[in-house]
Inverse folding.
C-alpha cells in the first residue's frame, strides 16, 4: 500500500465521520466545528488529486469566512437541542425522498464517469505545472461569461442583503466622523491666562475676567 | 535549508539505513523537515519573547521611563520571568464553560500564526515549503486564526467574553477584506502568487537597473495600498489603536476568562502574528531580502532590518495614538480602505496595460 493511499483513506474517513457528526451532534456549535473539520478533510482530498488551487481556495473561502459566519449565526440563535428535533418524524418522508434522489444522482455520476482505474486515467502534471495559472487562464478565456455571471449573482446577493436590513435613515443624532475631525479646539475651549500670586486672584477663579 | 539536509544525511545516514532499510529516504524527509521546523520555530519563539521586552522598553523610553530593568542585566531576563510566572499560574476553567472548546481556542489562535512560517522565504531559496500559490496558502492559513477568537468568546460562558469575541471576529474579517484586496494589487504587478517570485520581481525595473533597488520595490508604485496594508495589519493583529480585544479600560475582550498559560498562548499568538504580518509587509512591499542599493549584497540581514523597522513602527503607534471607537474602526475598514484598494486595483490595472507600465 502506497503512503498516498493511506493518507487518502485517513482523510476520507475523517470526512465521513465529521459529516455524520454535523447532523447528529446535539450542540449546534460543535456541529459547526465538525463542518469545519469536514471542509479541511475535503480540501486534503483535493490536494491529493493535485488540485492545489481549489484545495487552498476551499480552506480560504469556506473555513476562513463562510464557516465563521455559520458560527456567528449559530452562537447568536442559541437553539435548544429539543427544538432542533421538532418535526423530525413529520419531515422524514420528504427528507428521505430528497436524500435518495441525491444518492442516485451521485451514484450515476460516479458510476458513469469513473471506472475502477479512475486514478490512473487522471493526467499527472509535472513539477513545474502551475494550477493557478491554468485556472486563471480558463476563467478569463473559456469561462469568462459564466464567471462574470456568477459575480453578478453574488453582487445581487450583497445588494439584497443591504436592502433587506436597511430600515431607512435612523432618527436621532449620530456622530459623523468626518465632521468631527474638522472641529477646531478653539471652538470648544478657551484658555484663560491668569496669575494666582496677585491679590484678588480668587475672584478670577469664580468666573470673572 | 540545504545545509540541514547535508548535515543530517552525514550524521544519520549510516544508522538510518541499517534501522529503516528501504524506508530510509521517506523517514529522512520527515526527520529533516522536523529539524527545519525546529530551526524556524525556536528563533521565532525567542523573538516573540523579546518583542514583549522591546515593546515595554521602547514605550518606556518614549514616556521618559526606564522600562523593565530589574531581572537580569538591562531587564534582559524579564520575558523568561514572565513566562515562568504564567507557567505556574492555574488555568481556571469557568463553571458552565465548554471545557474542550475552551482549551482548544488558544491552540486555534497560535497554531496558524506558527504554521504560516513554513511558507515565508528568508532568503533567495531559503524557504521550508516553496509553494506555487504561496501567498494564497498563507492567507488561507492565517484566516483560521479568527476561530481562536470566536471560540474563546463563546466557550467562556460569559457575556463579556462572548460580545468581545463577536466584536474582534467582525473586526478581523472586515480588515481581512482590505488586506486581501491590497494583496490582489501586489499579485497583479508581480504576476505570481509565489512569495519568492514576488520578492524577485521587485529587484527588477528602471531604478534597480540604475543601482537604486529601493525605488523599484512595490511600496513606491503601490504607495496607497502599502499604507492600507500597514494599517490593516495593525487592526488584524488586534494592536493599539485597534485593540478592541483588549480594551481593558472600557470594554473587555474575548480572553477575559483565560488565565495562566492559556492566556499566554493568546498573548504569544498576538506577537507571532505581529512578526508574521511585518515579515509579509517586508516581503511584499519592501523587497524582502533585497538590498536597497546595487553595490551592497542582498541577504537575510536586510529582511531582518526591515521587519525590525516595521515592528518598531507598531510599538511607536501604540505609544502615540489613543484607542479607536469600535464604530470608527469598522468605518475605516469598510468605507475608507476597501474603496481605496478597489480604486487602486483599477488604476494599477490600467497602468499595467498602458505604455507607461513599469512592470514590463
Amino acid at each position: 500500500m502506497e503512503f498516498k493511499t493511506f493518507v487518502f483513506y485517513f482523510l476520507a474517513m475523517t470526512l465521513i465521520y465529521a459529516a455524520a457528526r454535523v447532523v447528529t451532534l446535539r450542540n449546534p456549535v460543535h456541529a459547526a466545528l465538525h463542518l469545519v473539520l469536514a471542509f479541511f478533510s475535503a480540501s486534503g482530498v483535493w490536494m491529493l488529486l493535485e488540485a492545489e488551487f481549489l484545495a487552498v481556495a476551499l480552506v480560504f473561502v469556506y473555513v476562513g469566512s463562510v464557516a465563521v459566519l455559520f458560527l456567528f449565526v449559530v452562537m447568536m440563535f442559541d437553539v435548544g437541542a429539543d427544538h432542533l428535533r421538532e418535526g423530525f418524524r413529520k419531515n422524514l418522508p420528504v427528507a428521505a425522498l430528497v436524500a435518495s434522489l441525491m444518492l442516485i444522482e451521485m451514484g450515476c455520476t460516479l458510476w458513469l464517469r469513473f471506472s475502477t482505474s479512475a486514478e490512473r486515467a487522471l493526467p499527472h502534471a509535472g513539477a513545474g505545472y502551475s494550477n493557478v495559472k491554468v485556472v486563471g487562464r480558463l476563467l478569463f478565456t473559456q469561462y469568462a461569461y459564466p464567471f462574470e455571471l456568477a459575480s453578478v449573482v453574488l453582487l445581487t446577493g450583497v445588494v439584497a442583503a443591504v436592502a433587506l436590513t436597511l430600515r431607512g435613515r435612523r432618527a436621532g443624532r449620530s456622530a459623523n466622523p468626518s465632521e468631527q475631525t474638522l472641529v477646531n479646539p478653539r471652538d470648544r475651549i478657551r484658555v484663560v491666562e491668569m496669575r494666582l500670586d496677585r491679590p484678588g486672584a480668587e475672584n478670577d477663579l469664580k468666573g470673572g475676567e | 535549508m540545504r545545509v540541514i539536509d547535508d548535515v543530517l544525511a552525514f550524521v544519520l545516514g549510516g544508522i538510518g539505513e541499517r534501522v529503516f532499510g528501504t524506508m530510509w529516504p521517506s523517514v529522512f524527509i520527515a526527520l529533516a523537515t522536523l529539524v527545519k521546523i525546529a530551526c524556524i520555530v525556536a528563533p521565532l519563539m525567542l523573538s516573540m519573547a523579546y518583542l514583549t521586552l522591546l515593546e515595554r522598553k521602547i514605550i518606556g523610553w518614549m514616556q521618559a521611563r526606564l522600562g523593565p530593568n530589574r531581572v537580569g542585566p538591562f531587564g534582559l531576563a524579564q520575558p523568561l520571568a514572565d513566562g515562568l510566572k504564567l507557567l505556574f499560574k492555574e488555568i481556571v476553567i469557568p463553571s458552565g464553560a465548554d471545557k474542550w472548546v475552551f482549551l482548544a481556542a488558544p491552540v486555534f489562535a497560535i497554531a496558524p500564526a506558527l504554521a504560516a512560517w513554513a511558507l515565508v522565504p528568508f532568503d533567495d531559496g531559503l524557504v521550508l515549503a516553496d509553494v506555487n500559490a504561496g501567498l494564497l496558502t498563507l492567507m488561507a492559513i492565517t484566516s483560521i486564526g479568527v476561530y481562536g477568537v470566536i471560540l474563546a468568546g463563546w466557550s467562556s460562558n460569559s457575556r463579556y467574553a462572548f460580545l468581545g469575541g463577536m466584536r474582534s471576529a467582525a473586526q478581523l474579517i472586515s480588515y481581512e477584506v482590505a488586506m486581501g484586496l491590497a494583496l490582489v494589487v501586489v499579485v497583479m504587478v508581480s504576476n505570481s502568487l509565489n512569495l519568492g517570485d514576488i520578492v524577485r520581481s521587485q529587484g527588477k525595473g528602471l531604478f534597480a537597473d540604475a543601482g537604486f533597488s529601493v525605488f523599484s520595490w512595490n511600496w513606491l508604485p503601490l504607495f496607497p495600498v502599502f499604507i492600507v496594508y500597514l494599517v490593516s495589519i495593525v487592526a488584524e493583529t488586534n494592536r493599539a489603536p485597534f485593540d478592541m480585544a483588549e480594551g481593558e479600560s472600557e470594554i473587555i475582550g474575548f480572553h477575559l476568562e483565560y488565565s495562566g498559560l492559556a492566556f499566554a498562548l493568546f498573548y504569544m499568538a498576538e506577537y507571532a502574528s505581529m512578526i508574521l504580518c511585518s515579515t509579509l509587509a517586508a516581503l511584499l512591499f519592501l523587497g524582502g531580502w533585497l538590498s536597497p542599493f546595487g553595490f551592497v549584497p542582498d541577504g537575510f540581514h536586510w529582511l531582518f532590518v526591515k521587519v525590525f523597522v516595521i515592528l518598531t513602527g507598531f510599538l511607536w503607534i501604540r505609544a502615540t495614538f489613543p484607542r479607536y471607537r469600535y464604530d470608527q474602526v469598522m468605518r475605516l475598514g469598510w468605507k475608507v480602505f476597501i474603496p481605496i484598494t478597489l480604486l487602486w486595483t483599477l488604476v494599477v490595472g490600467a497602468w499595467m496595460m498602458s505604455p507607461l507600465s513599469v512592470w514590463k
About this structure: The interface with chain A takes residues 26, 98, 101, 131-133, 136-137, 139-141, 143-144, 146-147, 150-151, 154, 162, 166, 169, 173, 176, 193, 328, 331 of chain B (CB under 8 Å).
